[in-house]
Amino acid sequence: MFNKKIRIPDPEEILDKMPLPANLKKIKKERDKLVTDVITGKSDKLILIIGPCSAHEAKPVLDYVERLGKLNEQVKDKVVLVPRIYTNKPRTRGVGYKGMFSQPDPTKSEDILKGIYAIRELNIKAIEASGLSAADEMLYPANIHYVDDLLSYIAVGARSCENQLHRLVASGIDVPVGVKNPMSGSIITLLNSVYAAQSAQVFKLNGWQVETDGNCLAHSILRGAVDSYGNDIPNYHYETVMQLAESYAKSDLKNPAVIIDCNHSNSGKQFYQQIRISEEVMRNRVYSADFKKIVKGFMVESFIEEGNQKEDIIYGKSITDACLGWEDTKRLILEVAEKA
Fold this sequence. Notes:
alpha/beta; TIM Barrel; eight-stranded parallel β-sheet; globular
């Protein structure tokens, strides 16, 4: 049984009430091009999608993004910094805190309408304060139009990449969409998902039959896999990446591109390992021109304070997965820029 609680207005109504200001639209458009040019190979910069596992409170997220904005001035010639403002949190067992979109205050009950306004306000303030537009995960495809005018990068998670609606909606998005490999690690499934996202589609979305042109900027994210016993299997090593590159070469996919997720099953959720993983990948970019050509950047989970906590007690510390702290984050970004 479904009990109707609160009517959620259509995205157009929300955007009319809380639009992205014209001056920030210009910044966002410029940022979209920076990310797009890396995916298409027009730019040899690296994309670094970096920030908290989940954005559970606006103030520390804005603090963090402002720090990224200042650091961006030092690295912008080599790196495109994209803050993670992840407002939807997938849960392995389906219960628990599901992110700011559903629960704008993690100490109170769910309020999706309030959550939509909260994340729009957060993203708008983040662009205004830092000059950086963000990335988020498309956990619920029907919700994407409440925020897609604010984002320069959208991810499809490992649990969602095989879902037909995620693939179809990704085909109509105008910015780069990174598709994570499924939990099984199947490269065939991953590339099938990218193919679907790159293809023109016709389907039903939010009460409409819609048509898309296909998103040629859809690409792969390697996040590691999990075997049937729950063991993590990394897939960021040279051999695995080059196998994916070979699979791309045998396909007719546009803009072959891979982002390496330094956390999750690649690190076994040992957050400090993200530094070592990024260093290994950077060495492989030096070793092989083909590796360098297809690896376009990294995903890193990072916040002001390292680690995580069950309740929001320590300012700037994750309440979901453990993250790198700011000083290590700064060092990672500067080292990546130096070696790029």
